[in-house]
Each structure stands twice: as C-alpha cells, then as structure tokens.
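User: Could you go from structure to sequence for me? I need the amino acid at each position, not a summary. Structure tokens:
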C-alpha cells in the first residue's frame, strides 16, 4: 500500500470512528455489526448433546437462535447464564431457541458428567452441545468465552457479542426478529 493510500485509509477510519462515536456507537459495536450477516456454520464435531437430540443449523430454520459459546469453569461465562436462561424461558414459546456450545478450556471441563452437573446447577434446560475438540468453535471462528451469536430464521448471523453484558441489546435483537412487542 502506498503511503498516500494508507493516509487516505486512516483518515477514512478516523472519520467513521468520529461519526459513530458522536452517535454513541463504539468501534466495538461497529465491529459486532460488521462481523454479522454471514451464514451460520453448522454444529460439527459435537461429542454429546444434552437436553436435545443432535441439532443442525438447517433444523433451526424458521426459528431465532442464540448460539452461546461457554464453559462451566469460566467465571464470565457463568455470569451470563442467568441472562441466557431467562431469555430462553421468556421467548422459547415464540420461536426462539438457545443452543449452548460447551467448549472446554481445561482438561477437567471435558467430562460429560461435569458438564451435566453444571447444567443442573445452573438450571439449564436448553440444548447444549459438548464441543470437546473445539470443532464447532473453529467452524464459527470463535475466539472468546463467552460469546453469543444471534441467528435469524434464515440461518444468517445478525448479531455477535463477546463477553458479559449487552443483555438489553441481545434481547432487543431477539424481540425484533420474533416481532414481539416490548
């Protein structure tokens, strides 16, 4: 890239950053929206499904899905679980499903018995796939625990968020897709 093109690009990025910040949108939010709008990859290499028969993205067509990457040994993941569980309980009868993808970070998190105990401990009744070899994690190009992806009725990722928080934004997106009034 030539120095003049690099300067022009940096100027453009600066202008977009300033314009979005002036409207209260951070670059992190911008990145979330820019990263969305891709076809959702399938669930691959799942060792075991809890609370469900094996699922696929194709089988979820017509529903709004929140795909939640987590592991029970992650403090931040555990902090999100009450919010994810409440969202599921609130909207499951309206065409919404949560699919938890338990991708372990440590060896002890590979145990199906430990995952099952964590599901009971946290009152998780939605489907959870045990992704011990990180195959689904890799297929989704995920990098974070926790991470949430909202998939629309056509199988398109329309929203992503990494970490804790954004609970109101996540619920607002789900409600908009389900066409549920506030």
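Assistant: Here is the amino acid at each position, in order:
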């Amino acid at each position: 890239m030539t120095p003049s093109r690099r300067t022009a690009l940096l100027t453009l990025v600066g202008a977009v950053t300033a314009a979005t910040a002036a409207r209260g949108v951070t670059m992190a939010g911008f990145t979330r929206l820019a990263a969305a709008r891709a076809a959702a990859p399938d669930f691959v290499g799942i060792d075991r499904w809890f609370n469900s028969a094996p699922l696929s993205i194709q089988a979820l067509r017509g529903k709004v899905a929140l795909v939640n990457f987590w592991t029970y040994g992650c403090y931040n993941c555990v902090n999100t679980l009450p919010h994810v569980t409440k969202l599921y309980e609130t909207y499951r009868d309206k065409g919404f499903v949560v699919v938890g993808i338990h991708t372990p970070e440590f060896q002890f998190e590979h145990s199906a018995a430990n995952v099952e105990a964590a599901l009971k401990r946290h009152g998780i009744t939605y489907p959870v796939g045990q992704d011990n070899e990180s195959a689904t994690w890799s297929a989704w190009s995920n990098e974070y625990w926790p991470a949430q992806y909202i998939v629309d009725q056509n199988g398109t990722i329309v929203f992503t968020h990494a970490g804790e928080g954004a609970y109101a934004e996540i619920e607002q997106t789900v409600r908009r897709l389900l066409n549920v009034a506030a």
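One structural detail worth keeping in mind: Strands lie at 38-39, 48-50, 64-70, 96-102, 128-130, 147-151, 156-162.
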